[in-house]
Amino acid sequence: MIKINFIPEASMPQPSPKPAGSTSGVFQSTLNQAIQNQTTSDDGGCIIPSLGEISSPAYLNEPVFGSETALLSKTDNLLELLDQYSAKINDPHQTLKDIEPLLNAIRNQSDELVKESDSGLNDDSRLREIVRRCALTATIECYKFNRGDYI
Hints:
Elements: H1 26-37, H2 68-89, H3 96-120, H4 126-147
């Protein structure tokens, strides 16, 4: 049989012996120069220069209060409150006194949205139109509840 793993020694490269004192080379000279130029601290450690303070981008410094994402989140919250209101108003076991705190939360959220959309968005913004329509729907529901439409 033939030995598959057999590799003749003649085909393997032999490392050439190096003289003991020959450490001259580009790497060695660069390493020696770096070691000599290194500054040390009092305790013997290396001093590494600091990078300084990294400033944040300008868009991170904008207030979140008037941002579009905050308005979207608050509009979504108002729609969730209106869904809860719709479910409670259709539940025959819920009294109007039970529903009133939810209606007050809807009114407060609606007023907040209108103020923020007036101060934070352009007049021609499509988001502003959506926010105002949601707030208008909430206001109409508050008027219907206070007028007694659901008695």
